[in-house]
Amino acid sequence: MKVKTILVSQPEPSSEKSPYNRLQEKYKLTVNFRPFIHVEGLTGKDVRQQKIDFNNFQNIILTSRNAVDHFFRLCKEMRFTVPDSTKYFCQSEAVAYYLQKYVVYRKRKIYVGERSIKDLESTFKKFGKETYLFPSSDLLKPEIPEFLDKTKVNWQRAILYHTVVSDLSDLRDVYYDVLVFFSPSGIESLFKNFPDFKQNDTRIAVYGNSTSKAAEEAGLKLNIKAPTPETPSMTMAIEKYIEEVNK
After folding, report:
1. CATH fold label, 40-163
2. CA separation (Å) from 192 to 39, 187, 199, 219, 225?
């Protein structure tokens, strides 16, 4: 069956140069975006109940834009001024670039991983005796805590926001040829919103091993997977599939 409509379970890209726009134009598709999950910030009281005092940390580990936003939001709420000497360890260039929303780049010490926080292992060890705060969601893959423990740095996790299932009830009678997922939480949201969901002719696209596993455990048939050596991005994987079925 040909693909004509796609629902991506993420917010709509802000850039007009998004690869989804190119897909849409090239193959005359309808591509819609709808976050299946969203985040809700915790309060300063919630943070204090975790026995966390921002004063006790010399360095901040940042792995997402949400972590950046909620850390600085809570600094403001708790009237904590981040010292100029604070060092920031960012998972990627995208996170580091986003950090400029809150700090003046040239006046701060910012270390950036090429693709992963693990790229900074030698830098962590260089400041091994210092203290690290790791702002995160309540949902966290074990890889990063395991890595930080392995490097033997003095770190503490701070849960600053929760990942919450979005209300998708308005989509109950809306059907798409392809549903695109990027996290196990997205799969969970699908079945929490629609417990009686039947895949039928809907194609399922997943990004990452953990998402694939969650989808398969939920009984879904996977039609499109990324990343692979041949299709490192989701849009490339979708395009490859469309070229096969839209002949």
Report:
1. Rossmann fold (3.40.50)
2. 16, 9, 15, 14, 23
